[in-house]
Write a structure and sequence with these properties.
Layout lengths: L5 H19 L9 E5 L5 E4 L13 E4 L15 H10 L5 E4 L3 H10 L2 E5 L16 E7 L5 H15 L4 E4 L3 E6 L2 H22 L5
The chain binds 5-S-methyl-1-O-phosphono-5-thio-D-ribulose and zinc ion (ZN).
The site of 5-S-methyl-1-O-phosphono-5-thio-D-ribulose has 13 residues, from loops.
Length: 207
């Protein structure tokens, strides 16, 4: 049996608190969303599949290895591969958060392939950005119930375009990441604000 360390519980508690905040904003309705944080030994603390992300308890955070295999007999998020592929690719990523927000969902209907964010002061909440005079592109990928195939589409995009701050999955939600749960939560909140601005600016087209 794998021992859950103090580090595991500290990161689990950070994910639980993040979930409460994200839910308070209405960004993870009806058990949607998933969250994870990497541990020093390379294993990952991740939400158990199907739990309400606004009401997480320590029992709802489990341990997987870097390949997404359960280490404690629990069932990890259905979208685990989207987390593990980011951790594998980027050693600096320590947390991944996935909300299902109205703004990400509507933005994907409006923009189809990518959301371009520029001339917003709040872009500086994203790591590595120190001026509003920056153009940030958030790609939109088609939704897919085959998560392995979806992870491959993301990898392919990253191979061709280099680093990004987040991606949207059409009709679904978005993924963002960072060097800690706090950094990732800041990215999530900033992107939500920026998606909201773009939707209000460009309007919502009829389907
Ligand atoms: C309740 S619909 C949302 C799910 O299909 C999925 O997209 C999701 O984000 C949550 O799945 P989970 O397996 O709990 O991590
Ligand atoms: Zn999802």
């Amino acid at each position: 049996m794998t021992l859950k360390t103090d580090e595991f519980y500290s990161k689990a508690d950070a994910l639980i608190a993040a979930g409460r905040f994200i839910d308070s904003k209405g960004w993870v309705p009806a058990t949607s969303g998933n969250f994870s944080a990497r541990l020093a030994d390379g294993n990952i603390a991740i939400t158990v599949s199907g739990r309400h992300k606004g009401h997480l308890q320590r029992d709802d955070i489990m341990l997987i290895d870097a390949n997404g295999q359960s280490l404690d007999g629990k069932k990890p998020s259905a979208e685990t591969l989207l987390h593990t592929s980011l951790y594998r690719r980027y050693p600096h990523i320590q947390a991944v958060l996935h909300p299902h927000s109205i703004n990400a969902t509507l933005a994907a209907r409006l923009f189809k392939h990518e959301i371009v964010l520029e001339d917003y002061e709040l872009l500086k909440a994203l790591v590595g950005i120190d001026t509003h005079e920056t153009r940030v592109t958030i790609p939109i990928f088609p939704n897919d119930q085959d998560i392995q195939r979806l992870a491959a589409v993301v990898e392919d995009y990253l191979d061709q375009h280099g680093d990004i701050h987040a991606y949207v999955i059409a009709g679904h939600g978005f993924y963002t990441w960072g060097a800690s749960v706090a950094d990732t939560l800041r990215h999530l909140e900033a992107l939500e604000f920026l998606f909201d601005c773009e939707i209000r600016l460009h309007g919502v087209k009829k389907a």
